[in-house]
Amino acid sequence: MLTETISFYLYSLYCPTKLPVMTLSKIAGIGRYVPENIVTNNDLLKYMDTSDEWIQERTGIKERRYAHRTDETTTTMGVEASRIAIDRAGITVADIDFIIFATLSPDYYFPGCGVLLQRAMKMKEIGALDIRNQCSGFIYALSVADQFIKTGMYKNILVVGAEKHSFGLDFTTRGRNISVIFGDGAGAVVLQPAQEVGQGILSTHLHSDGESAELLAMFNPGTHANHWNDGRVLADFDEAEIGQMFFSHAMVDKAQVFPVMDGPAVFKKAIIKFPEVIMEALKKNGLQTSDIKVLVPHQANLRIAQYVQQQLKLRDDQVYNNIERYGNTTAASIPIALCEAWEEGRVKNGDLVCLAAFGSGFTWGSALIRW
Ligand SMILES: CC(C)(COP(=O)(O)OP(=O)(O)OC[C@H]1O[C@@H](n2cnc3c(N)ncnc32)[C@H](O)[C@@H]1OP(=O)(O)O)[C@@H](O)C(=O)NCCC(=O)NCCS
Question: Is 298 a catalytic residue?
Fold first, then answer.
């Protein structure tokens, strides 16, 4: 073992150019899809007590898109974005050898959207993995895909982030702190081994802190049985000897079937973790904030993105935001924004792109990419 180590060391000293260079994965194609239906802040006034002024001032959102109630699902939107990404990668559906689908609003509780997309796109019997990491879902999905490419296991991985939030939010005044924020849409990328040395995903960084799991969550349907919450009732159950705890009439009657969020607590944690995980990525690669061409933060809230920009002393042209047009599309927000940035020519070959997200869990993460 010692002899092997010494000879490898001598080999690297004298033959540095012959050392194997790890293949990175690159984004070979990117696509996005947002539904046609534009819902402005004023449109929401007929359902709840809110105002355009309040929403814009607190979140930066002017409008969002809502999917067609029956014709569009999380998967169908993912399919639309995927077709574009695959086309732009210059490959065909038959070339895709693995699917990773990130969403918190799946078509079915199970199976996941990955297999529905595989069926809808008439793909081969390839693997399909669903990721449930909410707002950081796309970064987690990208990171998993990156590992598969680096090990050489797959050559063309389709990574999708899609959400149909409009199907299940509380559109009464009771749910206004959440329902005004979220929108529908999808984004997708094709990940391939990079051909050029130094090009591709330089590193990804993933974190979690389950202490705050209940601060941004949807508890029901679930199997928690109020176990985790120190006596706090997250679900009421019907009288029954067995079963009927996943869904109950009481849950519906008591409006326990909607997401809940402690907005200020999420805000406070997000503005710490976003800069932290971006700096972690830069430090790992010996880079600085001034090296970033474009930061694409998860579009949680414009105020969060502005705070992060200020903390990191980034210029306006170094940060891409589109939350004013789409709201928070959770797992779809980064690929949609990255795709728009690329379409607008803000991301070119050789540019350093940073992706960062924070959300429910809490989970957060970043990815640094040499485009
Ligand atoms: C949600 C968020 C916009 C709320 O802003 P805020 O300034 O923290 O507001 P609060 O929740 O403290 O509520 C302030 C008041 O506005 C009211 N309010 C909440 N939503 C409202 C709405 N849509 N319209 C009008 N008033 C609203 C509240 O009821 C509260 O009223 P009160 O003072 O009479 O009790 C903000 O906390 C936020 O953006 N947090 C981060 C959320 C996020 O990014 N989530 C996604 C993570 S990925």
Answer: yes
